[in-house]
Amino acid sequence: MKTYKPRILDDLLARKLQGMGAVLIEGPKWCGKTTTAEQIAKSVLYMDDPKKRKSLLSLAETDPGALLDGGRPRLLDEWQRAPQLWDAVRFSVDHCDEWGQFILTGSSVPPRTDEIFHTGTGRIARLSMRTMSLWESGESSGTVRLSELFENGGTAGGAECTDRTLAETAFLACRGGWPQAVRQAGETALDRAFDYCDAVAGSDVSRVEPSIRSSERIRRLMGSFARLQGSQAGLATIKKDLAANDEPTLDETTVSNYLRALKKIFVVEDMPAWCPNLRSKTPIRTSDTRYFADPSIATASLGLGPGDLMNDLPSFGLFFETMAVRDLRVYADALGGSVFHYKDASGLECDAVVHRRNGSYGLVEIKLGGDRLIDSGAASLLRLAARIDTTSMKPPSFKMVLTATGDRAYPRPDGVFVCPLAALRP
């Protein structure tokens, strides 16, 4: 029987509430924001309650402070339905000497930001919640701690783990980390990603961008984005892909509007570029790398299932990369870090750089597995490490090839650590 771990955000939320008046949890729908917040809240206001929605919105217009009455911390779920709540929370926090007064959850940014007059800086902390990592869903053995890699550089002895087949990994990518899907099996679990994409195209985008009405165009754009994930594709490239796949009428401005809407509902989470100090003057590419928030959004957008991935291993590698990036982001959050991408003008790339606040960082290449791909990933990591100017910044804490298969994590003679994703934890 699968054992589910506590969500990593649970501890982050508790810690933030100890030092801030309020905490905002943002992330895609169905990722578990409300459930996580409910576990610690003493009272709850559900702004999406269909029986109370009209009266709550009316009260928010006339007396938003009245909606804050209740046990603390008070959860304001889907607060963005009434943007006036933001300033009401900020004002309440300013006039209270206690921490941990409010938790706000939101699956989109407010449609009307003109009703928010203060950023909340110093009063409201922000947390990003993502779909479940393999560690949280009980599908990683957790025998390798990311925190320990920062300490020992991956030089410790090999650690055994569950050896997941490529077919099992393909299923996990297509199922995604949606909490409800994790608790289901087979086709029922796979349906959740398709249901999610239907909701995004059918209603969620138009809620934040009322001018966007064509659900079919949204679906086609999501399909194009899925084909280009893991790349630094610009608007012109996305437009070209759309034109090649039966949607020639969208101009770059429209494509930009659609992508902005998908970001507002946290469907898309691009990865910023990492800019280290180098020994050479090689120009560094600064474009963001394109990623969906969960690999299943990509597979569902293209109508793919696990069997399709097994029949197209190069494409499978891209979807696995999205899943690995999701997990690395979740684990990095727990360590007070962020995840970046590196690419320079010579073509040298690094799929992920986990960078912590203290300046330490680890270099990660993501591969399906097999000696040839692992050797290739290790060679790239060593080339990048050799270019970093360690007189002006720290050397990398570790260099790791993260794989889809393998029953053991181990250090190579060249100092590169090889680790299956299903062995990793924060």
Structural notes for this entry:
This protein has 426 residues and is an alpha/beta fold. The chain has two domains: 8-128, Rossmann fold (3-Layer(aba) Sandwich), CATH 3.40.50.300; 144-425, no CATH class. Helix content is 39%, strand content 15%. The protein contains 15 helices and 14 strands. The strands form three sheets. Strands 7-12-13-11-10-9-8 form a seven-stranded mixed β-sheet, sandwiched between helices. A five-stranded parallel β-sheet has the order 2-3-4-1-5, sandwiched between helices. Strand 9 and strand 10 (361-367) form a beta hairpin. Helix 8 crosses helix 12, helix 9 crosses helix 12 and helix 12 (295-301) runs antiparallel to helix 14 (313-334). The protein is globular. The model has no long low-confidence stretch (mean pLDDT 93).
Set down the secondary structure blueprint:
Blueprint lengths: L7 H10 L4 E5 L6 H6 L4 E4 L6 H10 L11 E4 L6 H11 L7 E5 L17 E5 L15 E2 H7 L6 E2 L5 H10 L3 H4 L3 H23 L6 H13 L7 H10 L7 H13 L30 H7 L4 H5 L2 H22 L2 E7 L5 E8 L4 E7 L3 H17 L10 E6 L4 E4 L5 E4 L3 E2 L1
